[in-house]
Amino acid sequence: MTTTLSGALREATRDAHEAAERxxxxxxxAEGTLPKQSAVSYLRGLAIVHAVLERSLExxxxxxxxxxxxxxxxxxxxxLAGCGATGLPDIDPAIDAAIALGDAILLDTDHPARxxxxxxxxxGSLLGGQILKGWFAAALGAPxxxxxxxxxxxxxxGRRWQQVKxxxxxxxxxxxPEAIAAAKATFAGIEQMAIGCFPYTDASLRQRVTALNPEAxxxxxxxxxxxxxxxxxxxxxxWRQHPxxxxxxxxxxxxxxxSDSCWLASLRSLAPDDILTNLRWLAxxxxxxxxxxxxxxxxxxALDDQFGLPVFAAAIxxxxxxxxxxxxxxxxxxxxxxxxERLPDYDAADLLVTALADEAAGAxxxxxSVHTWFTDPxxxxxxxxxxxxxxxxxxxxxxx
Length: 400
What we know:
The chain has 2 domains: 5-211, Heme Oxygenase, Chain A (Up-down Bundle); 220-400, no CATH class. Helix 16 (329-340) packs antiparallel against helix 17. Helix content is 67%, strand content 1%. By secondary structure, the protein is mainly alpha-helical. The protein has 19 helices and 2 strands. The longest helix has 25 residues, at 36-60. A two-stranded antiparallel ribbon has the order 1-2.
């Protein structure tokens, strides 16, 4: 009999799979006694794992293995939003276990065999989706028809699994040792997540930023519901101010805007120097990802407006002053106004001028990231691209 990757994984991980299904959470779920809090934290933990694995598979670009249509994260997030989970705290040990598993997956981005093993586990765990859907619906107090995560789609669970197995079995058999090791580690990580979810104590409950963004890791966030609400309102203001964010980053960018806003709100209790140190670090991280500092500054202003105290005013001024050393504000305003008519969409002129200033002020990579997006010929006309290049030349001519 010819050995297949999926078949060998099934045999090698049988014990690990069974152990993951013998947790107190599994028993309570089947008995209909699992608390909603535990069910929510378990699904949020799965969202963390799916977010990291699906992103890693996308970036790894393993020929023939991953298809964005296989992504389960959107359905999982929709289920959580639709079952009344918003505002519920998380169970700390469960989320810590999920983040630990996510951290391990992040290390596998350059290891196709390990990613294949992890995909095998998550896909295979949904073969009993119809039963799981009913059990989780009961725990969540939601109609099972609303739980899209456990619904494999029009092709049915069996057909979907066959498609995934075909993708796995097309990979080289030399992947097997690493794939088995990663699959066993994934089962163990999910087992720890389940153990963390149930039973639990009230002392283990806390607001975790991963409820807003499964990829946010261990970032701090306020624990006061009113402060969280103000942070989220500020995020909404910042998001709507820049259509560029939705156009470029989509739903994933929206989630990061929410989690970043909560982390920024948590900085408000720090000393001014510590606030500025943290914001300079964040500005550098965001800039090379295509977010010029003007976007961060407006987000900080939105937070000050929501909280009613100008805690970030000095930091905003410091970020602007750093740009002004290489591009005086009067020149930036003039250049933006001059090119706005030819580059009217997405606040392009302002973002491009700011990106050039950020780059000149030391944020390496900022201009390349912003420039690449704004000159994509699939998205923009030749006339638009020529205008971007004209703005670049004129701005660089006055940079100090």
